[in-house]
Write a structure and sequence with these properties.
Enzyme I, Chain A, domain 2; alpha/beta; binds phosphoenolpyruvate; 3 domains; single chain; 8-stranded parallel beta barrel; binds magnesium ion
């Protein structure tokens, strides 16, 4: 058995299909001068075919997954159209007399060294895009693609170093039941696609390609992050049972979409969705969320060549509001920096600790023009408008600011909003009132919550960041993942005090970090008095089901017992045992 990071829940069994890189030996000697024109034409031809391929993929993904997922192919297309990159390859072929493959291998080495020295995780990840494009070109040059997309029969477990976006799509029509990768974590393409399709997946399984071959029987346990290769018959039988339970449960839960989210004793709760763009908001509706609790607008910037204009932002915000459930959307202003950068608002220098550096509102404050544009677009999206029946509707739009640390920042944010309102009024542009909220994700803000509450309309707890800052353990570093635990007693105490403070002051409070969708954490948060949860849409059905097994007194008692535990592992053991008793039916999808 191999251990990795659980990235998409469920248990599945299938036949391994190992994807090794398709590179061809680039060591062939120099071209002769008369071979050069032919080689240039071969390269151009491969480039044209790749572009056509990507356009087709983009359309396919847009139909099968969503528009945001397809944006990656537009990025790849733009790489293939990039004059510097193309020029570099052509110069190598023409002047250094290299074959197209050798020139591409050179190019990749060049970018590898450039990107590897980048301190920024997001930038380093973007190297994968260039690699994907180069692989695609190389495979056209070598005809390797045909070999690689060969037929897969029966339930397949794809095993790869890192699943490149194009490979995921190539596998789109194949019966992929599970995904295992050597690299990657919670936010890799493979993890995102796996979760959105409900495919169990495990990432970060070091060197698994060395110990597995195509044709092996593989068990993927995406709840615990386990991968078992060629298991014994008894182990296989046990997992077959779990796999059946997982499929049955997935089908059954899909039916609770239209049910109201209520606890066993009839207390209503809000199960909201975290989304990255308009088509996710359709998914949120399909999964039965009652609103959008976190719209991460940075993806709009990340897939853009420059800052998106006010009208464009307005259109997108309106389409998120229109396509999502209940017309209720909490729009978070740009949260760039940390693990994500955009070149046009990028860092001026490499930061030693980007997560503790120039990110989120800290960065927005220094780009007042762009910041105002976003705030104006949000206020305009909140304007009342007439629906098709001629009635005036006021959308429930909330504006939320990430990484708030102190009261001075809240005052400064208020003055930005006031300024935007004054400008819009002067320009006679219609706009609406958007509730003003802060994300609580910096420990200093948790300590000062009583003082900060008077300056906001609502709070949303960003537990992903709060946990990493509280535990001083990078959320993306597997080496310290044992510390970065939302169920650690320290985190639970802080969350409890924040929820209590908000409830006492009657300020609406939501939790929108990943833990909102984890059944164990949900039960404890419910016991703390939290009633609003925002999560990946895929987790809504499970949490809705779990709520029907819990009364508020049960959750409160559970919390009391949990708060007596002194270690994370004791908290987890207690919660796993109790949930297995309270909702045994959910065990096939409980991630440990
Ligand atoms: C969080 O920090 O919990 C959060 C929801 O925001 P993000 O994951 O985008 O930082
Ligand atoms: Mg955050």
């Amino acid at each position: 058995m191999r251990k990795g990071i659980a990235v998409s829940p469920g248990v599945t069994i299938g036949t391994a299909y190992c994807i090794h890189e398709v590179f061809v030996d680039p060591s062939r000697g120099e071209l002769t001068p008369d071979e050069i024109p032919g080689e240039l034409a071969r390269f151009d031809n491969a480039r044209k075919r790749s572009i056509a391929d990507l356009q087709a993929l983009r359309q396919k993904v847009e139909k099968q997954v969503n528009k945001e997922a397809s944006a990656i192919f537009a990025v790849h297309e733009s790489i293939l159209l990039d004059a510097t990159l193309v020029g570099k390859v052509r110069t190598d072929i023409r002047d250094r007399q290299l074959t197209a493959q050798a020139a591409l291998a050179n190019l990749l080495e060049h970018y590898r060294s450039v990107f590897e020295s980048a301190k920024d995780a997001y930038l380093r990840e973007r190297f994968a895009d260039i690699r994907d494009v180069v692989e695609r070109l190389t495979s056209y040059l070598s005809d390797a693609l045909k070999k690689d997309s060969g037929a897969l029969d029966g339930p397949t477990i794809v095993i790869a170093d890192e699943l490149l976006p194009s490979q995921v799509v190539m596998l789109g029509d194949k019966p992929v039941h599970g995904i295992v990768t050597q690299a990657g974590g919670q936010t890799s393409h493979a993890a995102i696609v796996a979760r959105s399709r409900g495919i169990p997946a495990v990432s970060g399984v070091a060197k698994i390609l060395r110990s597995t071959k195509t044709g092996d029987t593989v068990v993927v346990d995406g709840r615990e992050g386990h991968v078992i290769i060629n298991p014994d018959p008894e182990v296989l039988a046990a997992y077959r049972k779990l796999e059946r339970e997982f499929f049955d449960l997935r089908d059954a839960l899909a039916h609770n979409r239209d049910a109201k989210a209520v606890t066993k004793d009839g207390v209503s709760i809000s199960l909201l969705a975290n989304i990255n763009g308009p088509s996710d908001s359709e998914a949120a509706k399909a999964m039965g969320a009652s609103g959008i609790g976190l719209y991460r607008t940075e993806y709009l910037y990340l897939t853009h060549a420059s800052v998106p204009g006010e009208e464009e932002q307005l259109e997108i915000y309106k389409s998120v509001i229109g396509s999502g459930p209940g017309g209720a959307v909490t729009i978070r202003t740009l949260d760039i920096g940390g693990d994500k950068t955009v070149p046009f608002l990028g860092r001026e220098q490499v930061e030693a600790n980007p997560f503790m550096g120039w990110r989120s509102i800290r960065l927005s404050f220094e780009h007042p023009k762009f910041f105002l544009t976003q705030i104006r677009a949000i206020l305009r999206a909140a304007a009342p408008s007439e629906n098709s029946a001629g009635e005036v509707e006021t959308p429930d739009v909330k504006m939320m600011f990430p990484m708030v640390t102190n009261l001075e920042e809240l005052r400064r944010l208020r003055s930005f909003v006031r300024k935007a309102e004054q400008q819009l009024a002067r320009e006679k542009l219609p706009f609406g009132k958007a509730a003003f909220g802060m994300m609580l994700e910096v420990p200093a803000a948790a300590v000062m919550i009583d003082q900060l509450l008077s300056a906001v309309d609502f709070v949303s707890i960003g537990s992903n960041d709060l946990v990493q800052y509280l535990m001083a353990a990078d959320r993306d570093n597997p080496k310290v993942s044992h510390l970065c635990q939302p169920l650690s007693p320290a985190v639970l105490r802080v969350l409890h005090s924040v929820v209590k403070a908000c409830n006492e002051r009657k300020k609406p409070v939501t939790l929108c970090g990943e833990m909102a969708g984890q059944p164990q954490a949900f039960a404890v948060l419910l016991g703390m008095g939290l009633r609003r949860f925002s999560m990946s849409p895929a987790f809504v059905p499970t949490v809705k089901e779990l709520a029907t097994h819990l009364t508020i007194p049960m959750a409160e008692q559970l919390l009391t017992r949990v708060l007596r535990q002194t270690t994370t592992s004791r908290v987890k053991t207690l919660l796993n045992r109790e949930l297995a008793r309270i909702a045994p039916k959910l065990s096939p999808i409980l991630m440990q």
